[in-house]
Amino acid sequence: MASEFTHLDETGAARMVDVSGKDVGARAAVATGRVLLSAEAVALLRSGEVPKGDALGVARIAGIMGAKRTPDLIPLCHPIALHGVKVTLDVEDQGVAITCRVKTADRTGVEMEALTAVSVAALALIDMVKAVDPAAAITDVRVEEKTGGKTGHWTRP
Amino acid sequence: MASEFTHLDETGAARMVDVSGKDVGARAAVATGRVLLSAEAVALLRSGEVPKGDALGVARIAGIMGAKRTPDLIPLCHPIALHGVKVTLDVEDQGVAITCRVKTADRTGVEMEALTAVSVAALALIDMVKAVDPAAAITDVRVEEKTGGKTGHWTRP
Amino acid sequence: MASEFTHLDETGAARMVDVSGKDVGARAAVATGRVLLSAEAVALLRSGEVPKGDALGVARIAGIMGAKRTPDLIPLCHPIALHGVKVTLDVEDQGVAITCRVKTADRTGVEMEALTAVSVAALALIDMVKAVDPAAAITDVRVEEKTGGKTGHWTRP
Amino acid sequence: MASEFTHLDETGAARMVDVSGKDVGARAAVATGRVLLSAEAVALLRSGEVPKGDALGVARIAGIMGAKRTPDLIPLCHPIALHGVKVTLDVEDQGVAITCRVKTADRTGVEMEALTAVSVAALALIDMVKAVDPAAAITDVRVEEKTGGKTGHWTRP
Amino acid sequence: MASEFTHLDETGAARMVDVSGKDVGARAAVATGRVLLSAEAVALLRSGEVPKGDALGVARIAGIMGAKRTPDLIPLCHPIALHGVKVTLDVEDQGVAITCRVKTADRTGVEMEALTAVSVAALALIDMVKAVDPAAAITDVRVEEKTGGKTGHWTRP
Amino acid sequence: MASEFTHLDETGAARMVDVSGKDVGARAAVATGRVLLSAEAVALLRSGEVPKGDALGVARIAGIMGAKRTPDLIPLCHPIALHGVKVTLDVEDQGVAITCRVKTADRTGVEMEALTAVSVAALALIDMVKAVDPAAAITDVRVEEKTGGKTGHWTRP
After folding, report:
1. Residues in the active site (chains A, B, C, D, E, F) (predicted)?
2. Rounded to whole angstroms, how far apart are CA atoms D89 and D97?
């Protein structure tokens, strides 16, 4: 039944769902999100006056490492192999757009890994700019596309 | 200079800022965020027809544990003591509102811990409902209030 | 030779045993354990007077997450995939009975994961009740059943 | 009120209890436990015929490292400093007796750290002997003594 | 092109390289390293006067556990299965020689796991002897041999 | 007695040494190390032809994060606060020189944290260049200077 929370059993108790019966297959997911920043913080990220060597780099690496920590953070996520993780950060007028693509060949989808990577990259970016912009906010963290598995290709409606 | 990224040195290289000179003192932070859900997912969370024992509980615990993992996830965060963490989830018409309050007595603020707790709780909630609502999104993750330290009391403008 | 500690080489040095030659196959294990509690703590867990929303839920989730941390905790355990983890807690007159079932399809058995889940769930439960019952004890943590692998089906004699 | 679960708030929701108001002070705890083993496994641990260099050493080190992982494993435990951890394993006729002593100077007691160290040492020992004795069991894991903090000196009744 | 850093994309941004197209196959790596110690520290390690039960054992176990932590430590390493890890420490006149052999059957090589195991074993050994020899140094940590994968058998020239 | 391994008790068993009696005070350590690279790899790191945005940045961040993981990796290290971590990488003719400075105010020194940061930065750098230079080696990882604590100021002889 599509309307049930699959992570809960019939008594409402949490469980790691048994995926033994699922096929191993190529799966991928794309998630995106944005960090809304003040004009000053955006100008600083774009400016040539302040060295920014690692500014976006720290967030990108935090995102990639965050993808690997997904089963440690999300209680019911299966520990799975990850075959590729790419995190992109684009400075825009209102802040920074983050995109993460994750690939695997395993028994479960990787949308949680992609969402976690975007979230951790966003958190690390906020940590970088918080002295300049304490009001920075994370918004629109969501799955855009998902391929593989029984449900096949899903794109955000 | 307020306009510099304090986590970067003069060459743009990332560093964990030296806080030896900061005073140990009571500090607290409140962060909030929301998970936007479909009407079906909200109805399911509110409905009595499906047992939901652990549905919100998993997210709450994931958030509390996430606060403790902050220095593991955010590259330049200092490992600090945490003296209290509270995560609240409220089911609303559009989804679930999440609030986290963190307290400590240490040399750095705890707004990153509060933001991380909200983000991880939100991710865990999405993991719970994703079979029902694959389009769930995290939005408005931000610091609302911060007390203690040199900057004193800050509230979101 | 059955009487050797397989985790030690011929000089007595610890090693992670080479399982390259073992077949990938479906494997499962069931472990159980009990937390002995005072009558007051049991009554509190059963009582409707005190809200207990997360009381057993925290222990259940800690157990599931503990199963995933097994290779981090047990020095010579192989990092393996987990395909399903279920932790059950039943309040009984003398305390709480804990059962964990773990499934995988990999090269090693999952009895250590099941035992670790039971132990961590038990520890988390003690943490919940320790203000009420500082004398709580964990007992009878053991493998009940194990299937898959070269040794096939094993049940506790 | 002594009869409440301090880790749950008035709605039954789990929280990391605020210990800001507690004094920093010297605290210590002793926990014990036993691993019940077959006569064959005990004989092997005592025998000089098989090199056992790391047999007990692996369990001892796993226990010490386990103490440090307590806040990662137990959802509501505070991350605290540890000033000393000692794990002792004694081979007895029925198995192995484990004792752990933990010291700190912080705002919370360390009985959960001591119990976790005993449990992880016991699990690691079972992992070492499981090919010889698949029926090994952990029993009697409990706090023996606790000093420091508001409650002062507590010994197992 | 052999001269490119495969972990960077065409813009210089770090990524976890996509290995979906690589074959799963048996792979192995051997890495070595040395800890240079004072004559006093070497004599102590060799002497029968001071009990040294766990001296080398701690380093050996730290190395094995370190191999498992490789994807947590090295930002762009893939999380992979490990099928066997062996760490050897030999006391020599100038210090201690460390060798690690790692085996797997996965899509990437295991030389980083072998190097990490050697490094962590070396660090743990220095931690053991640092009160006696604060000038201890790690040297010559390097891959000696690597088999499996597209590049086949590689031995240090 | 200076000639004893402080991490072993009188029976040779490993322990986390009790530092309760040590004073909390400002402590710092500097460690260095080098990664020896082929001329081709050095030229690539220096060349403007290949984008190298994150090449050294990944290693720098891995080092900083590695410092925070020290108590997880080194079995007998105390979990302590870190107040500042700085990792510097300089490309030289023979490879890359790495320096790490760590500061704290706690009961134990931070030389292990500094050594771990250098080692992990070196491992991450090797991971970046290994496709170009499979023979890269880590050498001369050692403490240069240490201040604070009972032993006061120590500099490498």
Report:
1. 127
2. 6
